[in-house]
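User: Structure please.
Assistant: Input sequence and predicted structure:
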Amino acid sequence: MQPPLSNNYSDQGSTISPEALEKLMLLKMQIQERRSTQEHLKTAFIIAFASVFFMFVIIVVKRAMNIGIGPILVAKEPIFQAEIFEPEKNIEHDFILENKGRLPIEIRMTQSDCPCLWAAVVGEANIFPGESATIRSTYSPSLDKEQQSGSVAHILEVYTDYMRQEKLQLIVKATNKY
C-alpha cells in the first residue's frame, strides 16, 4: 500500500534540500511569468482584433457612403458647344440631369459666371432616384462682351440640397460663325 500524498515531505521520511527548494521556487516564478505573459498576449490579441474589426467597419461604411447610397446628380452631356450664326439670336439648350443615387435630390438654384448665360429648371426641381430633370439654358451672344474674340466658354452652376454634391457645373461653349 502506498502512503498518502502530502505537502509535508517530512511526513514521508524524506527531506528536500535547499537547492531543490530554490529550484522549485524558481520554477513556480517562471510559471507565473508565463501565465502573466499569456494574459498580456491574449489582451493584445483582443485589442488588435477589435482594432482591425472596427477599421473594417469604418472602411465599409465610408465606401457605402461614396457609392451611391445618397443622391448622385449626373449630367448626360455636361458640355454644350454652340455655334453662333446670328449675334442677335439667343441660343437655347436643354441639359438633362439624372439622379443615379438612391435618395432624392433637389435643385435649389442655378447661377452663371456671365449675364449672357442664364438657366431655369424645366418641370420639377426634386429629382427622385432613377429620374431626370431638365435645365434649360439660354445664351445671348449680344450680351457677351467676350464673344467678339471668336470662342468663349461659360460655366453654369446647378446648386442642390445635398451637401456631398452641393453643386454641379455645366459648360456652354460658343464659337463665332458669322
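The radius of gyration is 39 Å.
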